[in-house]
């Protein structure tokens, strides 16, 4: 099994910044893409940003210029630096990863989610 654990959420004032982290752990595995999603109260989960193992990034339009996703492949960790946060960005932020893991029957693909970390933007 591959597991993801997010950290770094909390309360921040409008216009403030937070940095989220997500670390993957487990047995033999190779991660392809890691990303962040968020789900606000009463809304559907939406993509925030993702990054491939080669470092290519992609952002939702509303986050471009304010959010930065980065990755430490050696630590199997992805980060999300969020600046100029807005109250409407209050949500649970989830980490997602896909890749391959080695099992008793060979390599198998996986796609896993973390449990989420709450970000509250409020004065």
> Got a strand count?
11
Uncertain residue ranges: none
Element-by-element helix/strand order: EEEEEEEEEEE
Biggest sheet record: 7 strands, mixed
- Global morphology: elongated
> Mean of residue pLDDT?
96
- Radius of gyration, rounded? 15 Å
Q: How many H/I helical runs?
A: 0
How far apart, in Å, are the first and last alpha carbons? 40 Å
* Estimated helix fraction: under 10%
Give an overview of the whole structure:
The protein has strands at residues 2-7, 10-12, 18-26, 29-39, 46-52, 57-59, 67-72, 77-82, 91-103, 106-113, 117-121. β4 (29-39) and β5 (46-52) form a beta hairpin. The strands form two sheets. Strands 2, 4, 5, 6, 9, 10 and 11 form a seven-stranded mixed sheet that branches. The protein has a four-stranded antiparallel sheet with strand order 1-3-8-7, with no helix packed on it. By secondary structure, the chain is mostly beta strands.
In short:
This protein is mainly β. The chain is built from no helices and 11 strands. Strands 2, 4, 5, 6, 9, 10 and 11 form a 7-stranded mixed beta sheet that branches. The protein has a 4-stranded antiparallel beta sheet with strand order 1-3-8-7, with no helix packed on it.
Search tags:
123 residues, mainly beta, seven-stranded mixed beta sheet, four-stranded antiparallel beta sheet, 63% strand
Blueprint (SSEs and pairs):
Elements (H helix, E strand, L loop, with lengths): L1 E6 L2 E3 L5 E9 L2 E11 L6 E7 L4 E3 L7 E6 L4 E6 L8 E13 L2 E8 L3 E5 L2
Parallel strand pairs: 2-11
Antiparallel strand pairs: 1-3, 3-8, 4-5, 4-9, 5-6, 7-8, 9-10, 9-11
